[in-house]
């Protein structure tokens, strides 16, 4: 009873070895076909390595500044708030870290970047037009007059775009988002974000990477410092208004004094306008002094909000390129062809045996 399974196992192993030998002999008998497939695959891989354009990658890294209001400036902001002025000294964490990385990949930022002007062959065009030329879309649109007439001028007003404009920009965005643009925060503990832009056109990668960083940086600065800038503008207008009133009051005091020169001391009522003007001068002087303080504090706050993105490394020409080497193309092409032909022969013999 105990010897039976051992005998069956031994028989199964022999059959397995026999089957392997059969398949080996079968494939060995087809070595000419496999060899020919390898040669053809190697030639195809060599041709592909020549035809395939290299991929150029532009890399830009930047650090996100995340200052917090504290110390003397925090006390100054508290003093300003006690007078009813909100100088916008918040931390603005809505754009920090991963959120800022997503902002770089947003459709609005990418499409606005595509409208940035660049110089190609001594002609100023937008990055969108440069992308269209690189991909030969104009040749494909030659039979469609509506598409062929579409132009993307630098800094064009987005509101004037048609449905076709939006569709083309959307297609470009999807291609860049999926295959070319990579934005990531390499380490959550370090506020350094890296932008990688890859394409088969070196200058497009170079221009787009720098333009995107500039576009998002400007949007980021304008958004985060918007409240501080608004308050500073209001304070500056108030300072100018009070200063004009003060100058008018000073002039009024001089006029009233001239009118009462050598006046009879018994006629004190004639000195009333001069006294009133003196009160206006004192009041406006006090108000102007406080407003100037608040205005200068607002300028300090605005300057504090401005340097939000610090560029560390910019793309430098020539860009690193990733290209399929000729030897690598031959090896990959031959290997892939051999695997495909071998599997085809195995499946063919297997189905025939059934």
UniProtKB/TrEMBL annotation:
Residues annotated as signal peptide: none
Main localization category: membrane
Record has Cell membrane as a keyword: yes
Cell compartment(s), UniProt: Cell membrane
Keywords: Cell membrane, Membrane, Transmembrane, Transmembrane helix
Domain Polysaccharide chain length determinant N-terminal stretches: 24-113
InterPro entries: Bact_polysacc_biosynth/exp, LPS_length_determ_N
Bilayer topology: Multi-pass membrane protein
Transmembrane segments: 33-51, 330-351
PANTHER family: CAPSULAR EXOPOLYSACCHARIDE FAMILY, TYROSINE-PROTEIN KINASE
Designated name of the protein: Wzz/FepE/Etk N-terminal domain-containing protein
Organism name: Flavobacterium procerum
Upper lineage: Bacteria, Pseudomonadati, Bacteroidota, Flavobacteriia, Flavobacteriales
